[in-house]
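Extended Data, panel c. Modelled sequence:
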Amino acid sequence: MDAVPSTSLDPQVSARLKRDDNGLVPAVVQDATSRAVLMLGWMDDEALHRTLTTGRSTFWSRSRQEYWVKGETSGHTQTVREVRLDCDGDTLLVVVDQIGPACHTGAATCFDADRLR
């Protein structure tokens, strides 16, 4: 099942997004203070709309096929400071104030584990 499309997102913003075949755009999450890259999530129009209107990072779970708000169960929340769209329109940058670890493993970021080079 594909992510659920929405008409809630500003049509001018929606028109600029280049989505994958499932209607999703990758969202890179960055800490506003340290500038560390915290994680990557996936957003459709509705998840982006919710993120922009609530100020809380909201994503589409490809495995569970549902929306989720970062920190809703763990308490490790993200307060959104800004959202940017890259020059190609195919990636979002979400700049946040992170409370607690960002990774579900308990690491500060999802990119702490394996350095390839």
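The chain has two helices and six strands. This feature is highlighted in the accompanying rendering.
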